[in-house]
Amino acid sequence: MSAKAAKAAAAAARQEAAAIEQKRQRKIRIIGGLVVVAVMAALIAIPVLSNKDAVVPTDAALPTGVTSDTYGVKVGPAWTATDADKIPVLQLWEDFQCPACARFEEASGAAIQGLIDAGKVRVEYRPTIFLDKNLLSSNTAAGNPNSSQRATMAFGCAVDAGAAEKFHLGIFAAQPAEEGSGFSNDTLISVAEASGITGAELDTFTECLTSEKYAGWVANSYDAFDSEGVSSTPTGLLDGTELSGEVLFDPAQLTAAIEAATKS
């Protein structure tokens, strides 16, 4: 082989070796990239899984009258009326820390209570606690972590004491002016007292609250909130159909909608 041919062969060999190395490096980068993606996916997935509420048994303790099909609190005489099937059902999703829910109760609460008392609507309060995550830092800074959860557990304890409607009204009235301040247990107990829960019943209420008797119920209700795809609070469903905010916050329109849904 001539010197010229040998030089050309050497150059070709170097080019081939460079091409092989380039492919090898590209493969390393691809594999490395996949490893990084996998690691990042794992890091992202861990917080999501860690933030998911713990799975609770389906036989978790439930407040009086609450059933596991909805985990809602049914109030008023219409539920046991002889013609109950003709009376519309109004389901209300609320978070006790939600300022919009407090405004809704202020605007339409009295009208709803009037319809409840008159047996013209079957109301089911469906509590959620999504604001515990949104307000975690401010609730904790105020010394009242998990305020939505504790307020909802207290609601369940009030249901047992036969004071569901009064406590429901009182807890929104006691909502702090500054969102994120949350509820202390002392505040929740005070709301219970103002709702007519006193003496031995108040002792039972306090034990119910501090022992977190209804933590499982609260978790199940929150899971239902997620699984049913409810996007905000307050949300009102009249016989399964979502009502607009305009109707919810207008007592006249809300009353008219309920009356129109009544079966003859």
TrEMBL record:
Record's keyword annotation contains Calcium: no
Domain Thioredoxin-like fold: 89-259
InterPro entries: Thioredoxin-like_fold, Thioredoxin-like_sf
Ranges that cross the membrane: 30-49
Keyword Transmembrane listed: yes
Pfam family, one: Thioredoxin_4
Keyword terms of this UniProt record: Membrane, Transmembrane, Transmembrane helix
Name assigned to this protein: Thioredoxin-like fold domain-containing protein
